[in-house]
Write a structure and sequence with these properties.
By secondary structure, this protein is an alpha+beta fold. It is built from six helices and four strands. Strand 2 and strand 3 form a beta hairpin.
Length: 209
């Protein structure tokens, strides 16, 4: 089998989504999907549930800890909640998730199979100067269509609706998990010796008046 045939066959396989349909190809930013912080948190909780083992002897469920790390990188590190834009490269995802590029590829397939996200091919058009066989002299221009980074969309958990008032930016450096607010401490009993000293001080002040 020729190299061209192998590349063509691989492209066809990669262009099928989890439903077996041909994967969509679009120019530009893809199809951004805004998502509120509340929905992101619920999607994160759903992903954690899908990590639980479902088979005896298996250490993880539909997704593994590495798959979950890739989802977190995409959801909280790159996705912008207001614009819905999310199209980082595999290298950028791997750097954010702390894993290899090959792990990112496997994780995206597992996350899509688990119903947590989907993606599409993003295309761009570039113009090139056409030169002669010796690389000298321009003979016009030609336009080429190239694939760029994938465009990612996250699937909202059931019974969750986005509210425009909830939307907050989710790009890198702007979106992170909020630490829970600690409940107020209960009042501590006063030391008996200190209480007695304060009482004597109060009586002494009263006597001087």
């Amino acid at each position: 089998m020729t190299t061209h045939a192998i590349i063509t066959r691989t492209s066809v396989l990669e262009s099928l989504n989890r439903h077996g349909r041909r994967r969509e190809k679009v120019f530009g930013d893809g199809k951004p999907r805004p998502m509120s912080r509340n929905i992101k948190l619920r999607l994160t909780a759903l992903a954690r549930a899908k990590m639980r083992p479902t088979e005896p002897g298996k250490h993880y469920g539909e997704i593994s800890a590495k798959h979950f790390a890739v989802l977190q990188a995409l959801l909280w590190g790159f996705h912008n909640a207001i614009t819905g834009l999310c199209f980082p490269s595999y290298e950028a995802i791997a750097g954010k998730a702390g894993c290899a590029r090959s792990t990112v590829h496997e994780a995206i397939k597992a996350l899509e199979a688990a119903g947590l996200l989907t993606w599409l091919h993003r295309l761009k058009r570039v113009r090139e100067v056409v030169r002669d066989l010796f690389g000298d002299g321009a003979h016009g221009q030609r336009s080429r269509v190239l694939r760029t980074s994938n465009g990612y969309q996250f699937i909202e958990p059931p019974d969750v609706k986005a509210s425009s008032s909830e939307l907050k930016s989710g790009t890198e450096g702007q979106e992170s998990f909020s630490l829970p607010i600690a409940p107020p401490l209960p009042p501590q009993p006063m030391d008996s010796a200190l209480e007695a000293a304060l009482a004597r001080l109060g009586r002494a002040i009263s006597d001087r008046r």
